[in-house]
Amino acid sequence: GTPPNWDPPELILATHGTPGRVAGALGGAVGGVWGGPLSVAVFGVPRKGLGELLAVLGGPCRGLRGRLRLHVVVGAAAPPPPPAGSPNSGPPPAPGGCRGALRRLAAADPPSYTLGVPYPGNLLGGPTQNGGPGPPQIGGRFVLLLDADVVPSRGLRDEFLGPGAPLDRVVFVLPAFEVREGTRVPGTKAELQRLWALGDARPFYGALCPRCQAPTGYGRWWALPPAPHLRVAYEAPWQDPWEPFYVGPAPDVPPFDQRFLQYGFNRISQACELHVAGFRFAVLDGAFVVHRGFKAAGGFHGGREAELQRNRQLFRRFRAELRQRYPRSPRHC
């Protein structure tokens, strides 16, 4: 039977970004689609944007705070941020309510490569994995960590937490797509399929790194017969250089390696460690994630190749360290 004081499992949506990107996520599709708890890490640069975000969360968006755990990451030498809603946390927000204030912050957000410091994506992803607001639950917590501009399909949280016990040492992979800029983000597989047929949807990073999502098995996923509920459709073997988005048990999945900065190898390295640590990858049918806009080769800043090269060298060392960290594992990557 159910143990005494048992709390049902919870699924937390986690994300991270600069103040403007966090504002865009909370005020856009992520905030609208997701009705459950949120765990968000915000990079405290630029300082002005951080103050404005905290002011908005302490003012017109106060209603979000009951389901939001906010982690603020600043440099060791930086002064601590003012509390949300304090007189010094930023200027009073302009009229327009919560959503309007968040959209204005998002519109003023500078690109992360202009901040003057490398964006610490894996460092920011770490605290969000600890879960959402409130004390730890006996029933367990699951986390879906997404980029700030990636949106889950409708109903994922309710269906994932429905009948059926999650499997042990398993992460649940959500097929990832990108849709053409200006296209309404699909909420169901049927809506996604219509966009796919029109050429307005394709695999995430499909034009830049097809191998990075290929292990998901898109052809197999599309060929599945319709199902009335969310389900595990099949298990996919890990392959390099997979970058899956997944739901995982918050206390069990290995943390992201904080040495990877800016772009490249952050999800690849963590998926690699999941594989070596003995996790299996179960692909869900009836749920997916979507990035708004097609990723194109010319859409990145000039220093990206140097960042990738640095992280590529770091990844070689990371793989060697895994052999020492998991000496009994028969797996390697």
Automatic annotation (TrEMBL):
Reactions listed under catalytic activity: 3-O-[beta-D-Xyl-(1->4)-Rib-ol-P-Rib-ol-P-3-beta-D-GalNAc-(1->3)-beta-D-GlcNAc-(1->4)-(O-6-P-alpha-D-Man)]-Thr-[protein] + UDP-alpha-D-glucuronate = 3-O-[beta-D-GlcA-(1->3)-beta-D-Xyl-(1->4)-Rib-ol-P-Rib-ol-P-3-beta-D-GalNAc-(1->3)-beta-D-GlcNAc-(1->4)-(O-6-P-alpha-D-Man)]-Thr-[protein] + UDP + H(+)
Pro residues bias spans: 79-95
GO biological process: protein O-linked glycosylation via mannose
Protein name (record): Beta-1,4-glucuronyltransferase 1
Keywords: Glycoprotein, Glycosyltransferase, Golgi apparatus, Manganese, Membrane, Metal-binding, Signal-anchor, Transferase, Transmembrane, Transmembrane helix
Top-rank taxon: Eukaryota
Keyword set includes Heme: no
GO MF, any single term: metal ion binding
Protein family per UniProt: Belongs to the glycosyltransferase 49 family.
Keyword flag Repeat: no
Annotated Gene Ontology cellular component terms: Golgi membrane
Bilayer topology: Single-pass type II membrane protein
PANTHER family xref list: BETA-1,4-GLUCURONYLTRANSFERASE 1 (PTHR46420:SF1)
InterPro entries: B4GAT1
UniProt pathway: Protein modification; protein glycosylation
Cofactor(s) annotated in UniProt: Mn(2+)
Start and end residues of each stretch annotated as Disordered: 79-101
Signal peptide span: none
Cell location: Golgi apparatus membrane
Source organism: Strix occidentalis caurina
Pfam families: Glyco_transf_49
